[in-house]
Amino acid sequence: SKRVAWKARGDREAMSVRPGTGMSGYSGNGGDPPVPFLPGNSFADPNKDNFRKSHAFDYRSGTPVEMDVPAKMDTTIPSRPQSTQQRFRQSGQQDAEFVPAFAGLDGKVLRFDAFTAEQVPENLTEPFRVRMFTILYHLVDDSVQINEHKQQNSGHAQGVFMKRHRVPRKDPKPGEEFVSLFDFADTKTVQLYSRDFHLTGCNDFTQQFYEVNGMSLQFETHIPEDKYMTMRLATASRSGRNTATPGPGDESMEMGGFRPDSQASMSSMTSVAGGTKRDMREKFLKYANKVLRFYGQWDDRGSMFGQKLEYVINYFLQDDKVEVLEVKRNNSGRDPFPKLVKKQRIPRSFRGVPSVGSKESDFEDQYINDQDLLVGTTIEVFGRDMFLYDCDDFTRDYYRQQYGIEQSGNLLQPDALVEFPSMPLPPYNGFGSEHDSLASYFNLIPKPRRYDAGKQATLDAIIFRWKAKFDMDKMTAPNPDDHKRRFVVSYFMGDGSVSIYEPPIQNSGFMGGKFLERQRVIKHNSPEGFGDWMTDQDLLIDLPGTVWINGYPFVLLETDKFTLRYVNKGNIDSFVNVDTIHRKICNKFTGTKREILNVFRMLDEEKNGVVTLDDLVNVIRKFNFELDEDEMIALMARWDQAKEGVINYEKFVDTVF
Asked: What is the Cα–Cα distance from 192 to 190, expressed in whole angstroms?
């Protein structure tokens, strides 16, 4: 058939004017066959003077306009699909001006509502499932697009079911290979890709379009009931939940009733949604960034390994949501997990996770609100009983102004003091020092003793020393020669250790040397045992005094000046007696009063009866009398109370001698 059509077309072209020649059937001898239409065998028409290219659209001043072009009489080559243009015209007039299909039919779409009934062989209680569609037929190019209506929890990927394109027929015929708008007329079922779509309605434009063109439409008067969706609606109604998703068996889905773009359907959807959705705009504007803060406590000591924990409960007024934060305590032994419940609405009584498909608006009256939060009450937070024992000042002002309620003060009761029994320390095992024995008790693998480097650097230079001897009255088995022995007891502030050194004495029968290695010493008859070490306070006693060191009684006779300064905190008068110094000088220089006085007069060049402090020191040293630094400071402080640097030597000599 194509060969016949092309042959007939070639015959018509042979009888018509050649392009660019303006002549038909030209031959050189009249009766000869015409010149073949080949390159080089054609020539231009000398009588042609219009070389313009005709067109229907143009631009004038940058604006697209439509030109008045006479309609062509040749209808063998249509400007759009033959199935639509040749068989009808939208205006119904056959002699109207030619308008291209992409201009006259652009944006015009026929809309049909349809459904399919799919078999469900895997479910015996559900023989088929109804799926709702909207079929869009574009007149400009005879393309079809199918959109599926959205239903909650349907299990299908809804939305665009079939993209826009020309749909081929199941049994194509010459010139009718694709589905056209005539396939939707006078039928209730349209088959697209071997799937039957049952038409249930259309919009007003589609109805008027078919009536103008003398065609009628037929629709299904009843949609079969979808047992699955009916069962879901019944389950939702029994549980007290509302749903805005209509089922295929509802009355609104009858013929002409189920139209997604109809005002009745949209108004019903709005009324259902408006009855369940909360309007939060007013609360947001009024209570934005305003939070009620309560302090709660959860006592879980009744269960195994349970504890009493404290929480901060924040209630957000703008959306009625609650947040529960855990209070972290130092050395609590718990991992940092600050947020127990993230910001959300909390039910008053938790009864498990809601069923699939439920909404927050279905349980509006079952959530905690601000009226449920009062100091002294207990609320349930997902199975945990939280006792509210206090709140902040903003929360107190809110309840006072909003409800006239005065919140109570802090109701937290202190926990009773629990004394836990302590295990006694074991006795010394004889290996190493007492510290080594104690380290094997606390650790499976004994660790060396740790030193405080900062304390060691600061206090290592502080050493207290005493001159001591044995207390013969308190020794259990004294040696008769022990009363001759003398010792130097040293206490080191850096680590609290004690050492005892015995100066050697000739012909005493004792070697001398280290009597006690430097070590920490446990107090005598200590009831605590390990850890009850001797400190500086046990040695800084009134002299003479007795102390026990490792089972030996020592009498502390005297101490050095450094220890005296430390004990008396630098107060020289507390350990240096000026009258004692005067007696020592008098005993040293007996009978030399006049001689000393003459020396002072020789040093007094101005003859005013005073000498400097340096002259006083030089005179004392000239007569071979040595005073230590503390005694010199005390003596100068006594005779130079005005702090002028001079003393009255005549008065000094009279007082001393």
From this structure: 6
